[in-house]
Amino acid sequence: MAMKTNSADGRTRSSIQIFVVVGLCCFFYILGAWQRSGFGKGDGIAMEITKGGADCNIVPNLNFETHHAGEAGSVIESESKLKVFEPCRPRFTDHTPCQEQKRAMTFPRENMIYRERHCPPEHGKLHCLIPAPKGYVTPFPWPKSRDYVPFANAPYKSLTVEKAIQNWIQYEGNVFRFPGGGTQFPQGADKYIDQLASVIPIHNGTVRTALDTGCGVASWGAYLLSRNVIAMSFAPRDSHEAQVQFALERGVPAVIGVLGTIKLPYPSRAFDMAHCSRCLIPWGANDGIYLMEVDRVLRPGGYWVLSGPPINWKNSYKAWQRPKEELQEEQRKIEETAKLLCWEKKYEKGEIAIWRKRLNADSCRGRQDDSRATFCKSVEADDIWYEKMEACITPYPVVSSPDEVAGGELKAFPERLYSVPPRISSGSVPGVSVETYQEDNSKWKKHVKAYKKINKLIDSGRYRNIMDMNAGLGSFAAALESPKLWVMNVVPTIAEKNTLGVIYERGLIGIYHDWCEAFSTYPRTYDLIHAHGILSLYKDKCNVEDILLEMDRILRPEGAVIFRDEVDVLIKVKKIVAGMRWDTKMVDHEDGPLVPEKILVVVKQYWVAGGNSTSTQ
Q: Where are the membrane-spanning stretches (predicted)?
């Protein structure tokens, strides 16, 4: 219903709206100027903003007043009492609810079951705010963060001792330094990647998405970024304390994960390249089930790199301190499974071997008659959430000619970003046509343009690690695409449409997740979270407080959240987060105050463990 005002009231209201909008612009300007950095002072980004002055010009139709039923003023007084969430005890500083060590040790060690996700029951969840450690500072801006991490943010020195000769990590004063080395590339990731690039087309955009299994501190993924290749890295939370935490502090995409008994949380045909550098995964075990899972997520024509044992076992078995018979058998099983998968071995030199997956099933006619070749019967290869891995081969999509790429050929990146993904052009995503895909891109370009006017820091490099909690077709991430940042595109397991495969076909990365549970990451690993319709999606599915507390856990101090949802939902959110040490501002939709969808902008306050207020949990 349209609001009625006389002209004087209208002018007054417009003046207030413009004043408040300008206020939020300056609010983010001041936030940038005071942002804590790796040395506890205003960082270089903020200083540049300060030098330039605050440009607070914002289009008049973006304002902070809401004009619909369900506004804050209509909340019943008896329901408006503020619930304050207390800080958790300091021992929970690095709490990862679904990979909690004590709970993990109650599960079998066989096949790494104990390192898989084991989330707490409802009564075991913490209902308090995870504190940052004393001395916590904002990570260095990229690309400096690739090489340096403030010690206070992840104060664990064990890797500096365990991996000292392998050049993983060094402790220098109040920072960790990452020289770019690894167990298989002590001379640096760049030289190692150059060797891979002599076989794999890394340089021209053909290879864009990569999977790094058992990634360590993710130096391989960190150095691929300069070549416009983005890697999804994972490693378990194990004796190598904080390796994934270090990766994310460096500004490199990573999650806590393991190849155990459950399928990886990625769609089929997602990655152009998969990689294992001495990742300790027993590739030859369990009838080749781990290689079969890699095959599922590897695109036709994609590459698999194995670096380290058992490759070149004849010359290295003594250095590895393993019986040569054991290594020989391990390599035999790997070669046998690769042949069954119809992978072509392209390269073996030193301790590096590279295989390539065939383009389609027509290239593998021989295996149809192989009694050992069991094909997966699952109708949906992307139905993976908590599903057990199977020792079977994921079938290729059908092709009409021997040279056709099964599932569709992709453009080189960056053209891939806005080309129509094959899953859409083929009609594989019900309800999503080429036209709706293009409309979605236009819509999110418009939304992101509005976000950048609200928060001037989005383009500054201040926000490196960004998450989209309900990513849809990945158009938010596409509109943001920049070497200054990366986006973790999350497709909820209860989403109406399974679109994660589309996101990967655009040259972006992402993961499946159920937001009724904790995400597979450490606390304080994201600078900016985008939550479009996520709370409406999970209405009546689980407790909204649990979702908001999880967002607080993974958000860095002074990080930001952008909620986009119906006004009634955001009013409730605003009330809850008022007790979570979050500062909030409500903004109208960019098309004006009569649109019921609103934007709630949030900044998490800076605070650390050891204050006077502590919860009993």
A: 16-34
